[in-house]
Amino acid sequence: MPTQKGSVRLFRLLGIDVYLHWAWFVAFLYFTSRPNEYSNYGWSAVEILCLFLIVLTHEFGHALACRSVGGKANLIVLWPLGGVAYVSPPQRPGAQLWSIAAGPLVNVLLTPILLGAFFWAKKLGLAASFPDVYMLLRNIAIINIIMLCFNLLPVYPLDGGQIFRSLLWFLFGRASSLFAVSIIGFAGVAALVLAAVFMGSFWLGIMAAFVLMNCWGGLKQAQALAKIAKIPRREGYACPECKSGPPLGPYWRCSQCGNPFDMFENHGLCPCCNGQYNLMQCLDCGMRSPISEWRVPADRH
Fold first, then answer.
1. Which residues pair with 84 in a beta bridge?
2. For the chain: N or C, fewer Cβ within 10 A?
3. pLDDT value of position 212
């Protein structure tokens, strides 16, 4: 996954920092220098920049939807395979579903706008008078539709796979849903590899490797979540974010001495080096909150 490392900060909008990964510049030079149907390479550059804007609005859809359900989203990184909005919605299937579905929804809303612009250009006869403008409008409309359809494939970690995972979460729980879509994702990897070989596409091969790494990571995370779910829980405490109780036992590791200890039994104090922790990390959703916010009133036990 692309990160801020090796990326250039472009701007900050609505409290969200937008970065551009260095590999994007390589892809930009590659695609704009290839033979194309335009009269000059400048139009290829405009097409790539339009694709950049579509991807950016897609990622802002994810980020703003995540914030609307009480989640955190303050970083977007764009790279050759698209973009990544680093979102952290509440660990509830409905919140996850909306945060993911809002991205493709942006492309759905853009579809009639871009198609309308293309058909308007066709009606005006721009194919003959301004062929570059006509081809640009046509290509951008097609790119948006392809992006929408590809993203909705039920292959993890594409949006379609994550939407499918959120729907399964309602029925089977967090760990089982992630395990299922990760397994299905491996079938998607096989399909992408075959398509890459058949079409001779270098970029499909990269996409297959990207999906493979994420499916493997998802599978390992699902196994870890399943183990955590079986651990007995401490009464009297609940995560303010996901409402799950903290596990009983030394499942937190001190960053100073490296020894495991029970955060809640010791009230955030490492018994080995006396390191004090004021924020308790939930092992289910990963959020950190003060211990005072974890305590459940006696009448709710």
1. 77
2. C
3. 87
The amino acid at 219: L
Which positions of the chain have pLDDT values less than 50? 301
pLDDT value of residue 192: 84
Nearest residue to 169 via CA among 98, 232, 240, 104: 98
Tell me how many degrees the CA angle 240-245-251 measures, rounded to the nearest 5.
Answer: 110
pLDDT value of position 127: 85
Is pTM beyond 0.85? Reply is: no
Q: What is the DSSP string of 63-101?
A: HHHHHHTT-EEEEEEEETTEEEEEEE--SSHHHHHHHHH
Residues 6 or more apart whose CB falls under 8 angstroms from that of 174 comprise 91, 93, 225, 229, 284
Specify the pLDDT at position 53: 93
Supply the pLDDT for residue 145. Answer: 95
Burial class (CB in 10 A: 0-12, 13-18, 19+), 248: middle
Q: How far is CA 55 from each of CA 59, 77, 163, 197, 291, rounded to the nearest angstrom?
A: 6, 10, 18, 26, 40
Structure tokens at 67: 């914030």
Residue 273: closest CA among 251, 250, 257, 253: 257
* pLDDT at residue 191, as a whole number: 87
